Amino acid sequence: MLIFGSFVFAQESFITSIEYGKMLYENPRGIGCVECHGQAGEGKRITEYYHKKKLITLQGPAINHLTFEAFAKALGENKKVMPKYYLTKSEIQAIFEYIESKNSTK
Ligand code: HEC
Question: Which residues form the Cytochrome c domain (predicted)?
């Protein structure tokens, strides 16, 4: 994700902002975990909408209590709401450690 981002900005002269917008619109790889799982992985309400007159709440679950195995496994699976990221093991490790650090200071 980071590599992808810096590639695009380094090549700025070869891609217009409209093209970049199109790429993001069609393939939003950069959407942050924080948007759906909250600042410290505590979980977050994503949105609410009506489906057949019933209010549906879309919720990002808490991910601050998982083992590394469960965490990494979930990221390798196709989920219903969460996009698939294709992160490397070390990227997953880094995110996992970040969430742990956010939760150990409390
Ligand atoms: C668009 C919102 C969204 C984004 C962005 C997102 N997630 Fe999720 N995540 C979810 C939802 C919703 C679930 C529950 C499964 C489902 O319905 O997709 C989930 C499930 C998970 C789980 C499994 C939780 C469990 O209890 O098994 C983990 C771990 C996780 N996400 C980590 C991440 C990480 C790390 C990122 C960033 C790389 C991320 N998520 C980005 C919405 C999101």
Answer: 16-103
